[in-house]
Amino acid sequence: MANLQGYTQGAVGHMLNHYSRHDGDPHQEHYRYGNQKIDPTRTHLNYALYERPDPGEFISRKVEEADTKPNKTTNVISDWVVTLPKNPRLKGREREFFEQAYEFLGGKVGGIGNVVGAYVHMDETSPHMHFCFVPSCETVKMTNDKSHPLRWTKRDEMKNPEHKAGEVKRDKKGTVRYKRVAATDDNGNPITSKTISQSKMFSRSEMQDFHPALSAHMERHFGFDVGIELEDEGDKLLSKLAHGEYIEAKTKLEAIRSEVSKEGEEISRLRDRREEIKALADEESSRLESLQRSREGAEERVEVLEAVRSECGAADAAPLSRKGSLLGRVASLCSGFIEQLGARAGKLGAGIRERFGQATRRNAPEASGRSFEPASRRDFAQHAPSARQTQAVIQPQF
Question: What span, in angstroms and rounded, lies between the C-alpha atoms of 322 and 330?
């Protein structure tokens, strides 16, 4: 990405020392941004694609040549900071990338006559180039057209009822506002002047088109998209900062993104664990329901056995004339009890067969086709004693 910054006359010395890593301050302890991280062991890797022998004098001379003299707040130098994209396909072609950026920028600032220098820094957090230039440009002088006073519109009136549509516009001092037009000489030719203005050299529309144009230039040369244009919204916001502030904010943003990524992984792990616990809870709930049903079935069987015991006791104590009917009731209870046991045995057998089959498929997938076949309910009923047999078994001896 590329970032444009401007500097006043008071900052020129500071920036020139930063660009060239001044010999009197090799570690940039004085001439540096407070938020930059410069590695002195890599400073020898820095180089200049273009450098004037007298950059300070050159800037002063360009300022003197301007028809409109800059004031203390005027940016007398501008600086396009072009950062090397993190594209693995550019490995080994870093200088080539900066050379292409230098060629592109030279055509945007009025040619080599305005260029102070192009300095590539390899000793900071990200490799980048400072393309420094004086924003000197020819501009057309503008003047008021006294025959065309401006008038308020209906839209103006909607915004402010005091601005009546059709009335002549006036500023806060009451001065009439006129249409601005190009000033011309006696021959009707536009009058131009040389001025130093970053905003006039790079208008808002030109700034909007800058990155797409630079990206297209690089793609034509390299044959692939090098990654000039920013797609991440966070990076787009950071690109509006000064270069030093951008580097610091970018580092913080990457640290935050890394932390968010770790938190996301932890959240994902906790969600998986939650699903595991839910599955275990569902399994335990099903087992509890099964135990509850088993308990209820056991209680029913206990009730039947208690009834049988009670009836047998009554039959023992009853006279002979009543023993037959009492023992018939006992036989009926036993028959129902045996049917319940048969149904339960059938379900148990089906469960055993299913589990045995799963174990066989899991542990011996190529085993023979023999399988466990538990007794069916019909088989169980065939071998279960009849009510008459039951009666004979429990009938007391007299």
Answer: 13
The amino acid present at 261, given as its one-letter code, is: S
Copy the structure tokens of residue 211. 């990155």
Tokens of 11: 């900052």
Q: What single string gives the DSSP state of each residue in 183-218?
A: -B-TTSPBPEEEEE-HHHHS-HHHHHHHHHHHHHHH
- Which run of H or E residues covers position 249? helix 243-317
- Tell me if 51 sits within 8 A of 117, measured CB to CB: yes
CA distance 135 to 116: 10
Contact 31, 17 (CB under 8 A): yes
Could you read off the pLDDT of 223-273 as tens digits, one per residue? 999 988 654 445 545 455 554 555 566 567 667 767 777 777 788 788 888
pTM: 0.54
Please state, in angstroms and rounded to a whole number, the distance separating the CA atoms of residues 48 and 63: 24
Cα–Cα distance measured from residue 246 to residue 33, given in angstroms and rounded to the nearest whole number? 12
Q: Nearest 5 degrees, angle CA 193-CA 136-CA 124? A: 165
End-to-end C-alpha distance for the chain, whole angstroms: 111
Spatial distance between the Cα atoms of 142 and 144, rounded to a whole number of angstroms: 7
**Residues in the chain, overall count:** 398
Strands 77-83, 128-133: pairing kind: antiparallel
Which region among 56-70, 192-206, 367-381 has the lowest average model confidence (pLDDT)? 367-381
Strand order in the sheet with 47-51: 2-7, 77-83, 128-133, 115-121, 47-51
Neighbours of 29 (CB within 10 A): 8
Query: Residue 188 — φ and ψ, nearest 5°?
Result: 85, 10
Q: Which of 383, 296, 372 is nearest to 338 (CA)?
A: 383
DSSP run (H or E) holding 142: strand 142-149
